[in-house]
Design brief:
mainly alpha
């Protein structure tokens, strides 16, 4: 198998200690560095402004609580009707022989996946698995935060339900990658710890208008998981394709919820909502893991983004 590295894409390679992918052979050597991790010490990307929303705007969100109950909470799925990660994975309860055979079949399927695809899949997995950052982020919004961690406020109920549904995404992708044997899970786990520790600075200012504008943009970006499903079919892993497609369906439903919120805000307070949209566009919507860092290279997010975008364009064009 040809080694994949940052230098292959005309991007400076980070120091050789950062690794993600294993070779497909039984060799103990690993691929050159191709992915970035997040730093707990990375400086904020901009001057941080907090609590920019005036009290009268907070009251608008309070007044919308009954609307949230009627129009947003129904978009939750009951737990008993939700899929769970084990439904897509080798099941250890079936006994050791069946479990081992299912793992062997999984490992055979993933042999058809390219290194570039796995880079994108690891990126999706880390974005999904950094969930604590996103729940914390929403709970900084004035007017909608969960004040007690179990608040009966409809805004808070939605945030907890959304988080519970999202939590399955990272769990499933991480376990699949772990069983595949194609990924350096120690590096992935360190990356995740760095990422959650670093947090995210998107400039929302504790402002629920700006925050929801950011979330709907993120939801649209995460819908890329649907493209990952098509690519998995092309590369010969129908189970992974079903996993990515199922996650994409969840994300679309969540995107619908946040679209409804923005549409309602445009209805009840169009001027402030448009100002929030303009403000976030000026700041540029950045991905949640924009503080990527491995303790050595401060430009790792740019390195990863360049590879991701180039590889994604090549893959998508191959499907057309």
């Amino acid at each position: 198998m040809q080694t994949t590295s940052l230098s292959q894409f005309n991007i400076p390679s980070p120091p050789p200690k950062t690794t993600i992918l294993h070779r497909k052979t039984t060799s103990s050597r690993r691929l050159s560095p191709i992915f970035a991790v997040a730093s707990t010490t990375a400086p904020p990307s901009r001057h941080q402004v907090t609590h920019s929303m005036p009290p009268e705007k907070i009251e608008i969100f309070k007044s919308l609580e009954s609307w949230v109950s009627e129009n947003i909470l129904p978009l939750r799925k009951p737990v008993e009707k939700c899929w769970q990660p084990i439904e897509f994975l080798p099941d250890p309860s079936q006994g050791p022989d069946v479990f081992v055979e299912e793992v062997r079949a999984l490992r055979q399927r993933v042999l058809g996946l390219s290194d570039e695809y796995l880079v994108m899949l690891v990126g999706n997995m880390l974005t999904e698995d950094a969930l604590p950052t996103y729940q914390t982020f929403i709970n900084t919004f004035d007017g909608v935060r969960d004040e007690t961690a179990s608040s009966p406020c409809p805004w808070a109920i939605w945030t907890r339900a959304w988080s519970a549904e999202e939590n399955r995404h990272g769990d499933l992708l991480r376990t699949y990658l772990y069983l595949s044997g194609r990924v350096d899970m120690l590096m992935v786990e360190k990356t995740l710890q760095y990422s959650i520790g670093a947090g995210s600075d998107v400039g929302a200012e504790n402002n629920a208008y700006m925050g929801f504008v950011y979330i709907i943009s993120r939801a649209s970006n995460i819908s890329n998981t649907g493209n990952m499903a098509r690519l998995a079919i092309k590369d010969g892993d129908p189970v992974l394709a079903r996993i990515c497609g199922t996650i994409a369906a969840d994300e679309k439903r969540h995107e619908n919820a946040y679209t409804r919120i923005i549409e309602k805000l445009l209805e009840v307070d169009p001027n402030t909502t448009m100002q929030a949209i303009a403000s976030m566009m000026r700041k540029r919507i950045t991905m949640p893991l924009h503080l990527m860092y491995d303790g050595q290279d401060p430009n790792l997010f740019e390195h990863f983004s360049a590879i991701f975008q180039k590889t994604r364009r090549l893959y998508i064009s191959s499907l057309c």
